[in-house]
Amino acid sequence: MFTLTLENAKKADLVYLYIKENFDTSSYSIKKHSENLEFKFRNLTDLYREFSLSFTDLIIFFYEQKLVKNILKKNYFYFSDDEQEEILNICNSMLNDEESHHKKDLIFLSVHDYIQNNSFMNLEGFVNFRLKDYIEILDYLVDLAVNNFIINREYLRFINLLHEYICTSDSKIDVAHLIYLGKESVLLDSSNNPLPIDEHILDAKYLSDISFSTNDYVLNTLLNLLPKKLYIHILEEEDEFISTLKKIFKSRVHVCYECEICDFYKTTTNFVHSDISD
Q1: What is the pTM of this model?
Q2: Pick the residue with more confidence: 28 or 170?
Q3: Other CB atoms closer than 10 Å to residue 130's CB: what's the count?
Q4: Was domain 171-277 assigned CATH 3.30.420?
Q5: Could you tell me which residues come within 8 angstroms of residue 155 by beta carbon, excluding any fewer than 6 positions away?
Q6: Three-state secondary structure readout of 57-115
Q7: Residue 211 CA to chain centroid, in angstroms?
Q8: Mean pLDDT score, 57-69
Q9: How many helices and strands, by DSSP H and E, does the chain display?
């Protein structure tokens, strides 16, 4: 028999229902007594492995969010409640990646080792004192989430500053066409004549500081010209740079996927690529 002790009877009720609804209990019976759950096993052949897998999922379901929130409040208390909620959302989006599989392995190994040598477990005590490696993984993920939050916040501030600059500055041209080829771009005026791309990036060093795009020169040129309308002709697929232009220029942006300009540059690009491959 194996006895699992929870913090209180209410938590024991929740865990009991979770086990009954989510796990295959054909190899053992389970009874609840106040804050204790008692397991009696019928077959020990695959018991330790299957039981450990079940307990791994149970621990993640009932304790992971609590642990993450505790790490946030302890290490990053200087963020507001709303900011901590944003960080928590970022962290939650990371919990299903490769690191997540690694943390499940750590929990499984600890549980598997423990239940082979013990017939009693205080679950909260086990999580807090026997899963140090797992908690370190969560600590690492929270730290990554905080860094991402700070970068995103600075990025949004940067975007807002540029948009304010556009709104308060005079336009030098009415229309500009951006033919977007991924890392290579072409700028045209309203008469489809090429616009020189300004490579004097010193006045726009903020682009390199943020490092969110490889199109610094193009954006620098557009910020100097400040067109009243910016037509973006996308020949491949929309990416972060296009998304950034939309946020900066907002209502001035018109995205195009099919027109005479698009067709011309698609044909030209295909011809150049074909010629190079030959």
Answers
A1: 0.77
A2: 170
A3: 15
A4: yes
A5: 210, 212
A6: HHHHHHHHHHHHHHHHHHHCCCCCHHHHHHHHHHHHHHCCCHHHHHHHHHHHHHHHHHH
A7: 18
A8: 95
A9: 10, 8
The 10 Å Cβ neighbour count of residue 56 is 21
Which amino acid, one-letter code, is at 239?
D
User: What Rg do the C-alpha atoms of the chain give, in angstroms?
Assistant: 29
Tokens representing 81 are 């409640």
Contact predicate 59/90, CB 8 Å: no
For the chain, domain boundaries? 2-162, 171-277
* 3-state class (DSSP) for residue 32: strand
| Tokens coding 12 | 């024991």
Residue-averaged pLDDT of the chain: 86
End-to-end distance of the chain based on CA atoms, in angstroms?
73
CA-CA distance, 168 to 13, in Å (whole number)?
Answer: 62
What is the pLDDT, as a whole number, of residue 44? 64
Please state, as a whole number, how many other Cβ atoms lie within 10 Å of the Cβ of residue 88: 17
